[in-house]
Amino acid sequence: MDKEKPVVRKSIVLLSYLVAVIVAFLLSSIIHTQVVLSGLTDLGVQIGWQDRLVATGRDIAGLLPGYGTVIAVGLAIGFLMMGLLRRFTGLPAAVVYPIGGVLAYLAFFAAMHPIFHVSLIASTRDVWGLIGQCLAGLIAGIVFAYGCQQAVASKKPA
Predict the structure, then answer these.
(1) Cα 20-110-141 angle, rounded to 5 deg
(2) Spatial CA neighbour of 96 closest among 109, 108, 79
(3) What SS3 state is found at 126?
């Protein structure tokens, strides 16, 4: 039965990562769409709530293959790096993983610009849009940290 515990802990961590990626992607997509639509309304374009919902749904579907992959890979690297930092410093998961989520977002946006010579996520061309995207990384880190804490709790005897 003791051999099952590590498998359970690893499963909890993996599930937490997947949930964090899904949360991050959905938040990122919604924030992106609303920031872009806000820019259009600033120009005088009338956009109703139904159009906002349709645009949001289409962006979620359209951004999933590319942006979803970038988020998944970026968060994996960020969380792994912060896990190493945590191992050597003893900092709590609730501190390091949210920071890792934000740093992952900043890193992949910084990497995109020199490669493509433009920010592919239009909302990040504005400081508030970038902050919104980083907020999604922060929340993903909170979700992942919570899952890691649950995995640690599963170590303790019942």
Answers:
(1) 20
(2) 79
(3) coil
For 2-37, write each residue's pLDDT tens digit: 566 778 888 899 999 999 999 999 999 999 999 999
pTM of the model: 0.89
Q: How many CB atoms lie within 10 A of CB 7?
A: 9
Tell me how far CA of residue 151 lies from CA of 5, 21, 69, 81, in angstroms.
9, 18, 25, 18
Domain boundaries along the sequence of the chain? 4-153
For the beta carbon of residue 110, count every other beta carbon within 10 angstroms: 10
**Residue 23 and residue 15: Cα distance in Å, rounded?**
12
Start-to-end C-alpha separation, the chain: 13
